[in-house]
Amino acid sequence: MSSCSNSQTSEASNSGQETAQQKDKQIDFENAYIVDVRTPQEFASGHYEGAINIPLNTVEAHLDEFEGKEQIVVYCRSGARSGNAKMILENAGYSNVINGINQSNLEKLEDKQK
């Protein structure tokens, strides 16, 4: 039975990833509010063009900055911190949040949409 349970868990995770990837493909790069949740030092070393820096540990203190945004895209270096930022924002009531994973992923998605 445990293998059945693991299989279902694995399938649920995979379908969740597909859903996230489908959402990523729908990023409105012209109007999305793109937020780099890395540290200011990491941000200064290079970031996605047009992104703003709100480090993960300050997202809750800056919730008002996300209000009225049609689409919010968060990213970091590996997708872990941006995943946490996405959860924080969704727990605060935002439903239009996409984990863009990292700068490279965002650039690839933008190129595919052109």
Automatic annotation (TrEMBL):
InterPro entries: GlpE_sulfurtransferase, Rhodanese-like_dom, Rhodanese-like_dom_sf. It comes from the Bacteria. This is Rhodanese domain-containing protein. Residues 1-20 have a biased composition (Polar residues). Residues 1-25 are annotated as: Disordered. SUPFAM superfamilies: Rhodanese/Cell cycle control phosphatase. It comes from Brumimicrobium salinarum. Pfam families: Rhodanese (PF00581). Residues 28-110 form the Rhodanese domain. Signal peptide: none annotated. Gene3D superfamilies: Rhodanese-like domain (3.40.250.10).
